Amino acid sequence: xxxxxxxxxxxxxxxxxxxxxxxxxxxxxxxxxxxxxxxxxxxxxxxxxxxxxxxxxxxxxxxxxxxxxxxxxxxxxxxxxxxxxxxxxxxxxxxxxxxxxxxxxxxxxxxxxxxxxxxxxxxxxxxxxxxxxxxxxxxxxxxxxxxxxxxxxxxxxxxxxxxxxxxxxxxxxxxxxxxxxxxxxxxxxxxxxxxxxxxxxxxxxxxxxxxxxxxxxxxxxxxxxxxxxxxxxxxxxxxxxxxxxxxxxxxxxxxxxxxxxxxxxxxxxxxxxxxxxxxxxxxxxxxxxxxxxxxxxxxxxxxxxxxxxxxxxxxxxxxxxxxxxxxxxxxxxxxxxxxxxxxxxxxxxxxxxxxxxxxxxxxxxxxxxxxxxxxxxxxxxxxxxxxxxxxxxxxxxxxxxxxxxxxxxxxxxxxxxxxxxxxxxxxxxxxxxxxxxxxxxxxxxxxxxxxxxxxxxxxxxxxxxxxxxxxxxxxxxxxxxxxxxxxx
Length: 488
Known about the structure:
By secondary structure, this protein is mainly alpha-helical. The chain contains 21 helices and seven strands. Helix 3 links the parallel strand 5 and strand 6. The longest helix is centred in the middle third of the chain and has 27 residues, at 265-291.
């Protein structure tokens, strides 16, 4: 067993060997010596340096290089001499990933950079007149590089990808709530570890699946298993726990993730989701104790639920520039659960306040990305439930917007996403009392093999529709038939 924990990867794109500027015989730059200083700086920050020409198996292998450029947690690129391979690699990185890319280059040759590179931030380093690097200049390069790596690891470096800066592109055609599937897809690059994760995810027995994921998690974190794409493997396990509703395992694992992963919006959002699910579970326990007239036990469970929800809200409190429709959707779910908890406890005013906050939050998510139908359909459901003086008019405007979002959203990238889209259309049809269309969309939903909790979520929303239409026997009966088809 290895004694050191595995380290996140830092891919280094740069020339290698001893080379002169294109078309010249001198000065001769010893890029291997430059790399030695870069590698030491990378290792000093707890990362694993990997260089293209040092690929296992020998030679310069394009497929592994592309994989590393795509999934590497960090990339350092040396633009000295405007090397064609390196500039191409930077283009691949910027086009394929929004992860940090640090550019460096010998100051003597920065004026020769292609026009497209001039606006980018490049950290210069110094060479001697004969092209050599002194120990002093090497130490200066290391100090500057370590500072930039520390900022990148801590999430302080901001967006360094010009494609992201100009377009806010996060993956062509992706919705924010689909990004968890993108992470799971990246386990293709984790070799045997990826196969083991996928095998665990495919297990029907949730306890066995979670046990397998937990075993692999511990092996990755103590160094027993070594993978180059450590971050992708850890996130895949983290999301694997979510798939099998192992909410406490997600919360426990978050505290062990590398700090750079903890700072990512996706990890924070999923932590908030897990904490909220635990809060909802505690609320149900409190309700059982109230039913049994055990006031003390009910109060303990209620207090636990409230504390967990507070932690969930804190986890979802991202910097404004990182907030997405997905963040709003998770926040809305927290307030929605809080409303249900207060309602069950008989706290009418607190329940109304939580419901108001949930609706406002979901509708903020709709405004953040009009293609994302998840926040919008939840806002529809909750406005139906509240049925206040302004809700009917608001629904007349909101339902067509959400229906359009479901129609024009990018093609689903997973079975889960196919189900949610069909469920959204079914719930919108139910909200409009168009039960013929609702049944058509239900047939689509039943064609997808998804986890039971997804059916349960849809059933819970339909029960809210039932309550909202309690004065309409025909609507209540139609919704009951929908629920019966989705139930066990």
